[in-house]
Amino acid sequence: MRLTFLLTLALAVPLGAADWPQFHGPGRDNHSAETGLAKEWPAAGPPVLWTKAVGQGWAGPVVAGGKLLVFHRVGDEEKLEALEPATGKGLWAFAYRTRYRDDFGMDEGPRATPTVAGGAVVTLGANGDLHAVDLATGKARWHRALLADYGADKGFFGVAGSPLVADGRVIVNVGAKGAGVVAFDAATGKEVWKATDDAAGYSSPVLATLDGKATAVVLTRDGLVGLDPATGAVRFTHPYKPRIRESVNAATPLVWNGDVFLTVSYGLGAALLRPTGAAVEEVWANDRSLSCQYNTPVRVGEFLYGAHGRADGAPPELRCVEWKTGAVKWARPRFGPASLIAADGGLFALTAGGELVRFDASPAGYVERGRAAVLGTPTRAAPALSDGRLFARDGTKLVCMNLK
């Protein structure tokens, strides 16, 4: 059997065991190695250690090097702040002017969660401003204006895919002609390579080993692309795009045991794909199993857990689905969109309605252990779990909760 595993940024830069340095955690798979977490909590929810007012945005918090990083919009600036995780005390701030305006009157803050690697914090703003900021001091290292540099389109809801840092390269789905995916030198911001004509989706790329080779796995607006992270050479492609134009590819691909799981919604649904060289075999595909609009499901063992349905329709139901077949094991109606983290033998869900829920990771059935309202509506940013603390935010407030 081919060994496939999600590579983490720990391969490139030493990180603390409790770090949550990027979107969806160390392995970009929403898994945490934390233990000793409370199995249940009071009706009021886990103890709140501190709260902080924040600006607009859907970018999730990250934790690395003893700092909590928050990326949000305050007035006409996109702002990156470093805080003490235990207290919320400010350490430094970096800000720049943004002119992003949402075509649909929605939140106008940054969408992409920062990535920490090589002693830098890499951010991508809603208008395509790509920055590298020194983690220790908050001083800018370099900047690229992606929409201006490449003539790319901001898309329906702004630029949103969180940057991937792999082997000294920052990889972004830019979405321009001849520059669908671009890699930049992490130290200087200079272009290293560019590949494909694919438009930009809202999904974030992941790094995986497929057929014994490190591979940047990217779900663009047009479909799945596997790239050599060092050169940009295209290893495989697979079209995966809804028929209707008013749609997005947003959930992050999941890679396990040589297979790649995609979920899109908009009548397309999910697929389990098996790349072998340049060929891509479709193991199963349908719109009935787990059709996630923008939240990425979590795999625990042989099963997937995620929110099935669109946020702009009937409330999505939480489902448990078998990885290898797509068979639905159980469904919890009207659960709503939710960001999920697998930790300490269970699952934590932060719903779009601002509720934190703990339930069992079991295909036998849905067993809820705790539920509490902790934030307002809508809550779209993915949370971070570090050193027993859960950091979560909505459009106005950041909260730190003790899960131990």
From TrEMBL:
> Which Gene3D superfamilies would you find in this protein's record?
YVTN repeat-like/Quinoprotein amine dehydrogenase
Against InterPro entries, the record matches this protein to: PQQ_b-propeller_rpt (IPR018391), PQQ_rpt_dom (IPR002372), Quinoprotein_ADH-like_sf (IPR011047), WD40/YVTN_repeat-like_dom_sf (IPR015943)
Span of the signal peptide: 1-17
Output the Pfam families linked to this UniProt entry: PQQ_2
**Domain named Pyrrolo-quinoline quinone repeat: which ranges?**
78-331
Keyword Transferase: yes or no?
no
Supply the alphabetized keyword list.
Signal
User: What is the protein named?
Assistant: Outer membrane biogenesis protein BamB
State the organism named in the record: Urbifossiella limnaea
Q: What is the lineage of its organism?
A: Bacteria, Pseudomonadati, Planctomycetota, Planctomycetia, Gemmatales
